[in-house]
Design brief:
Layout lengths: L2 H15 L4 E10 L9 E5 L4 E3 L5 H11 L13 E5 L3 H6 L7 E7 L4 H12 L4 E6 L5 E5 L7 E2 L3 E6 L3 E6 L3 H12 L2 E6 L3 H4 L8 E2 L4 H8 L5 E5 L4 H11 L6 E4 L3 H14 L4 H4 L2 E2 L11 H16 L20
């Protein structure tokens, strides 16, 4: 779950505890351009309060209007999930502000089970991945164990969404760029870990919300047990440390592995990884280096933005561009 959907779950549990009626709305499927991805959550209370988003625009306004008449929140005793479609016609897409002919299918649950929401939060809190299954015909909602390879499923009758720990980011190196990267990544829903065996850097690390791993980089990668929701970025600019992390990370299922450095240094790194270590060409080819998208970044915060932009592109299944133009102000410091 990303940060926004975690906030929705927290708000839903609070509303339920306070005795409010509310509907839970999930983006089931999108066509064309859509502001929120499948699986995104929104809750709509009977007094019009909203948490989360399914479109970021006029669809929310329409849902609020319809809820004000008691259509969605169980006022008339109807608690069966239902399917809503927006943007089916060009006129409707224009009216609801959907760009490029976008279409949304939403699954609306007029009265979600509060106990199941509590169970979901508890299982997520213990680090579990959970599949939430909603059957429209029967209204049955169940929770099942999930795995890293699972994804959302929707066949028009049953919606299965995946919930669990936030995306994870392991940063090797506690320098300036890492500070900006750690803070920005948390805003994007990442659980951030920092590893730097150099006490002169690590002892001053104080970025709130992050977790320090007191180990060598290769051991830190192994300790985390990387999965397809994990990323590793090596930023020490010391080959002895960065390469240790890359050796393990490139063999893992991590969706993104990147390393700071100039083109020349990254070419040397790739040659080292192939020549001296047990890595295949395919594994070495997974390395994003120089790390980040080519946005002309020069300062530490700009470099952090470029890294997160490329991570986001890869996470979302987009082909990120070559980082050919990413500026590296520290490139000349390490041969």
């Amino acid at each position: 779950m990303d940060n926004l959907d975690t906030q929705v779950l927290d708000a839903a549990r609070k509303w339920a505890a306070a005795g409010h009626r509310f509907a839970l709305i999930t983006v089931a499927r999108t066509w064309g351009s859509a502001p929120r991805p499948p699986g995104a959550w929104m809750i709509l209370r009977d007094d019009g309060q909203v948490q989360g988003s399914v479109s970021g625009g006029c669809i929310e306004d329409d849902l609020i209007r319809r809820a004000a008449g008691g259509e969605f929140t169980g006022e008339f005793g109807n608690t069966t999930p239902r399917l809503l479609r927006y943007g089916v016609t060009a006129d409707e897409a224009h009216r609801f502000g959907l760009p490029c002919g976008g279409t949304l299918e939403l699954v609306l649950e007029p009265a979600p089970d509060a106990d199941l929401l509590d169970q979901l939060a508890q299982r997520i809190g213990t680090g579990q991945l959970v599949q939430r299954r909603v059957a429209l015909a029967s209204g049955a909602v169940t929770l099942e164990g999930g795995s890293a390879g699972d994804s959302q499923q929707w066949d028009g009758e049953t919606l299965v969404t995946l919930h669990g720990p936030a995306w994870r980011l392991l940063i090797i190196g506690a320098g300036q760029i890492s500070r900006y990267l750690a803070s920005m990544a948390q805003a994007l829903g990442y659980r951030v870990y920092i590893c730097d065996p150099r006490s002169e850097y690590a002892d001053g690390w104080d970025v709130p919300g992050t977790e320090r791993i007191a180990a060598m980089p290769d051991d830190a990668v192994t300790e985390l047990g990387l999965d397809p929701r994990s990323a590793v970025v090596a930023l020490t600019h010391d080959p002895k440390l960065d390469d240790m992390a890359l050796l393990e990370a490139l063999k893992s299922p991590a969706f993104y592995v990147g390393a700071l450095g100039s083109h020349a240094n990254n070419s040397k790194r790739r040659a080292r990884l192939l020549q001296y270590f047990d890595l295949s060409q395919a594994e070495v080819d997974r390395l994003h280096g120089p790390v980040g998208l080519p946005i002309g970044s020069r300062t530490p915060p700009e470099i952090a933005v470029s890294i997160l932009a490329e991570m986001t592109a890869v996470k979302n299944g987009q082909n990120s561009r070559s980082a050919a133009s990413v500026a590296d102000p520290y490139a000349c410091r390490v041969a």
